[in-house]
Amino acid sequence: MSQAPARVTAVDTHDIRFPTSRELDGSDAMNPDPDYSAAYVVLRTDAADGHEGHGFVFTIGRGNDVQVAAIDALRDHVLGRDVEELCADPGSLLRDLIGDSQLRWLGPEKGVMHMAIGAVVNAVWDLAARRAGKPLWQLLADAEPEWLVGQIDFRYIADVLTPQQALDLLRRGRRGAAERRARLLQRGYPAYTTSPGWLGYDDDKLGRLAAQAVADGFRQIKLKVGADLDDDIRRCRVARAVVGPGIRLAVDANQRWNVDEAIHWTRALAEFGPYWIEEPTSPDDVLGHAAIRRAVAPVKVATGEHVHNRIMFKQLLQADALDIVQIDAARVAGVNENLAILLLAARFGVPVCPHAGGVGLCELVQHLSMFDYLAVSGTTEDRVIEYVDHLHEHFVTPVVIRGGHYTAPTTPGFSAALRPESLARYTFPGGTYWAADPDTQKGQAA
């Protein structure tokens, strides 16, 4: 008598919030007081191995409950799934989630529902990597190109990236992978840090953290800009004086400007040699980004953390609107869509420098960049992953930075699991931290 296949038995969700606004960690011109948060999902199964799948969406406070509700709305598509089949083909679940026509109407393929799909799909990849006994970057890098192509939705992008072209890129990308893997394991993947540059920090804190970043081996730092030009000029002057001419200095406006403002402001900061201007205007304004890029060169234009799907990235690339593609592990529909975006960037010859920080985004996106290095782009030249030094202690397998580089994870999975004690303390509103917070209780009673 054959044994019944293992199935997904639970989709547990949690509203996790951290009080980062109290110290202005994460503050920028558009988001002055964020409470970094995660709509967190755990897939449980009845498999004998006991493995779970963990995923999440990063938000910045209020609205995290809406994001949790969106994940809950997907539950019926996941419960009862055959675990073996699910892990062998995560794209099958993605197709079903994207194809729910009533939920699709809320996008399509953008916004809260699309991010919820990404959380669930990423949890499946975490489960698959755990069951395979590999960190996700290795699972992807070891996969056959044909299988990877089968995980990608080419609808709406096949005019610039066909399945055959993707297959050719992945086959070429495998050349020399063994040597690159050895280098990756020895040296890691280059990082840059935003930790000195939050807009709410005073000049002394900015200078102290910038100096520490250089001492720690980072060759690039980033400052938030966009609230006040005189302040930005002063802060860039402080940072450049501290780090010297040999360190790259990027600036990030977090969508604050109109097109003409972006051009004027970036030119005003040009004396400090900014490497890139990030999110200078609305992430949806493809032609605006193209105009800014033409006007501010040689300063590069970077965007992507709020670009909501592969189709928008396709247009930004087609329009020569950006110099740096910034993927985000939790903005689009998970690993599968990020595979498409990595291949689109490779097709256009544009480097990928992911957005990270937040809650767990560093933990996730390191895997995607390492896969890109091993199996797509084959290089780390002009490629760096953002690093922000907070909230890592809440993860079971936090990122490890050595000498300004991400150390390649060796633990099986997607590095997404939060510590149980962090769930107990920071679940909103009933966790021990929030239950003891007078402002929280006042708001709940209102």
TrEMBL record:
Q: Does the keyword Lyase apply?
A: yes
Q: Care to name a GO molecular-function term for this sequence?
A: L-fuconate dehydratase activity
Q: Which UniProt keywords apply?
A: Lyase, Magnesium, Metal-binding
InterPro entries named among the record's database cross-references? Enolase-like_C_sf, Enolase-like_N, Enolase_C-like, L-fuconate_dehydratase, Mandel_Rmase/mucon_lact_enz_CS, Mandelate_racemase_C, Mandelate_racemase_N_dom, RHMD-like
Which Gene Ontology BP annotations are present? amino acid catabolic process; carbohydrate catabolic process
According to its UniProt record, the EC number is 4.2.1.68
Catalysed reactions, as listed in the record: L-fuconate = 2-dehydro-3-deoxy-L-fuconate + H2O
Specify the domain of life of the species encoding this protein: Bacteria
Q: Which residues belong to any copy of the Mandelate racemase/muconate lactonizing enzyme C-terminal domain?
A: 203-299
Cofactor(s) recorded for this entry are: Mg(2+)
PROSITE patterns found in the cross-reference section:
MR_MLE_2
**Protein name as catalogued:** L-fuconate dehydratase
